[in-house]
Amino acid sequence: MSTAEAMAGVPELGKLITRRERIRLPIWCYALLASVVGTAYSFRQLYPTPESRARFAATVGRDPALAVLYGKPFDLTTLGGLTAWRMGVFGSLLLAVMSIVTVVRHTRAEEEAGRFELVGAGAVGRRAPLIAVLRIVLGTQLALGVLIGALLTALGMGASGAFLFGLSLAACGWFFAGVTAITVQLTDFGRSAGGLAFTVLGAAYLLRAFGAGSGANGPTWLSWLSPIGWTEQAQAFAGDRWWVPLLDVLGTALLVAGAFRLARSRDLGGGIFPARPGPARGAASLRSAGALGRRLHRGNLIGWGIGLLVFSAVLGAIADSIAELVGTSQQANEIIQRMGGQGGIVDAYLASCMNILGLVVAFYAIQSTVRLRTEETGGRVEPLLATGTGRLRWAAGHLVFPIAGSGLLLALGGLAAGLAHGGRSGALGRQLGELVLAGLIQLPAIWVLVGLTVAVYGFLPRATAAAGWSFVGLCILLQELGPLLRLSHWITDVSPFATVPRAPGVAIPAEPVLVMAAVGAVLTVLGLIGLRRRDIG
Amino acid sequence: MENIIEVAGLRKSFGRAVALDGLDLVVRPGEVHGFLGPNGAGKSTTLRVLLGLLRADGGRAVLLGGDPWRDAVALHRRLAYVPGDVTLWPNLSGGETIDLLGRLRGGLDPARRDALLARFELDPRKKGRAYSKGNRQKVALIAALASDAELLLLDEPTSGLDPLMEEVFRRCVDEERDRGRSVLLSSHILAEVEELCDRVTIIRRGRTAESGTLAELRHLTRTSVEAELAAAPTGLEALPGLHGLETHPAGEGTHLRCEVDTDRLDRLIRALSAAGIRSLTSRPPTLEELFLRHYQDAEPATAAAPAAASMPEAAR
Ligand SMILES: Nc1ncnc2c1ncn2[C@@H]1O[C@H](COP(=O)(O)OP(=O)(O)OP(=O)(O)O)[C@@H](O)[C@H]1O
Ligand SMILES: [Mg+2]
């Protein structure tokens, strides 16, 4: 195929994509800019002098939990160094998610919906959708990187570090656009293509966490295997290794080239893995809306379970060495004492892990709640509701998963973290119980988000997905930025996760947990009432 | 026995768009009832209201003696539905889908299911997305036909079926009628309607345009007449119900062509015989003409001579 032919239709598709992303793309950009620039600005207000920053570096900056979960500190004596430390991993994750979601939506998901057939029959190259969406995603992220460089420079940070930092974030986004370009070729469904890409993202996060969590003699090189680790290793404002983001660029080029090769060897709508035939008869158990719900959600839940098992186990395994990261000097001992001794440091770290676990499971919960709406718009509800199945029974078949399935995942995550941690540090029984509980107390907060989404589904069905994902996004932003920006409690407490007790290591008060569970239940019931009264379709 | 479906003055709007605007529909027990109308006339909307998926804004709808919205679940156990646009679960095989839908309706007869699979030549082992459009349609059809429902609601059930399969479908519907089931069949395929339906209802723009047996409907429309006359006829202009009259001299006599309302045919023939008929052909309207007239009336602006067999599109 000649270049001209390959590019046929790309500008037109690009326009279509821009139009369909006219709300989402600006939101992504705004979220990134607001987090990075807001954080930088807030650091400037809080730690204006080198002395205040040195104090910060010697205290909070040495919290090993932050190094493992949020980013390795290199030079915290400059404002730029502080910003790069605190926002490097977070910004990389944000852009990676933006890449995955956007690329899937405009390639595999379009094919799955049968819309690309309509477009593809026109003068449009086979690879045009991929090229078009990559151009938009990569272009937007490059512009974002440059913009961040300019804004941080304007805030008085070193220009070289500022632009390196911005571009290394963008480069990580690029890499995951490349990863997704591959995964959308491999699977049949948009959902599994996204799942595969998110698995890679999770692995990348874990590799860098493990690298950052290893002492000087440990496998710190692991973070070099991770594109998120590369953002840290670029060491913006602390050495400025300009060559590191080139790894991302090279990786992106290889991945995209690979994706084009794969695209050539598969059919439109098909994956590389061919679909297998199914049973000629329904199993005797496939006889209720609940059974259908289990059938539809089973694979997804198992996938999440395996992923979170590994995720939590790795985070748990890091817990032991975490106190060592503080060091052994006199000063380090003081810090350790101030943080509640070795045990206190480990507990605080594990509490942060459980909090992250809660946010990750919230993604699962919203994903499986939104399924109600995709089933409805996909026209698969009508034939079911035309049988003896009522609306509530149908909805319940799905809602079991965000409501109870989430609990299963949280318990599993706590268990895995406890096994990995307790397995190495002894006192297994106590650890296990505490961590499973610490995982499970995130559940009521998730129920609130599920309840909100179901309520929207009942009364404003069109807004279901947008609302659900906005709720999760808002919780994450408030959680990450609230303390940095010193937002008032009135604002940060909007997120139900702000009220979750930070276990293990603290007594768990019953009240907030029960209140959130009740709020979640009331909202869910409200949504179901709406569903019973409205039109389907 | 009371009617299976009784709809009177049914109204439904989506925002400002009016989909049903006082629709009337009666389906009697044991009959196959054709439901016709141009695209966007409101056929699928009517079926969805009858299924309790949509809530009517006004009017009355009684289905199997119950309220389609309030008694939805109980009523659904007694009926089977084939949607106009069949989408299947991508990770369920066709066989699983058929079994699931049947069981949710309260069970299906395995022997009948297998017989139908064989008759429709459907491979039940494929997964949802591997089916072609026609085969997806068959999955929904088999699930509905294998059930023990009293009433079948079929929304363009043969769209996508090849002519052989369409024939199989017609025989199945005939058998259903023989077993005493009632069928409401929305369709754009006139031959199918002509062959299967005892009565038809034609709707346009959400309103009932015509309802009755095909013979009755034919009676309401015009017969075209062509005649060779010995002399020029007189007094035709005064005849009521005469349309498109054309006369021109042919040899010594006159050639005449016109359309006449079927119930006025008698008076036209008398007038013609006064002029001396040499030859006469009269043709009752074909079903196509019947429908085209209704469909075109719905939207005069788009009535520009569509091909006889295809339906003109009503503008939205
Ligand atoms: N969910 C909806 N929201 C808005 N408008 C709708 C909706 N469903 C149907 N309509 C409108 O109601 C009208 C009737 O549509 P309906 O689907 O009942 O037509 P139909 O007779 O089944 O047409 P076809 O022959 O094309 O299947 C159309 O104008 C359609 O655009
Ligand atoms: Mg329709």
Automatic annotation (TrEMBL), chain A:
The keyword NADP does not apply. The chain crosses the membrane at residues 25-43, 84-104, 136-157, 163-184, 196-222, 242-263, 301-319, 348-366, 399-420, 440-460, 467-492, 512-531. Keywords: Membrane, Transmembrane, Transmembrane helix. It comes from the Bacteria. This is ABC transporter permease.
UniProtKB/TrEMBL annotation, chain B:
Its main location: membrane. The keyword Nucleotide-binding applies. The keyword ATP-binding applies. Pfam families: ABC_tran. It is a peripheral membrane protein. InterPro entries: AAA+_ATPase, ABC_transporter-like_ATP-bd, ABC_transporter-like_CS, ABC_transporter_ATP-binding, P-loop_NTPase. One of its GO terms (cellular component) is plasma membrane. Keywords: Antibiotic resistance, ATP-binding, Nucleotide-binding, Transport. Coiled coil: none annotated. Belongs to the ABC transporter superfamily. This is ABC transporter ATP-binding protein. It comes from Actinospica durhamensis.
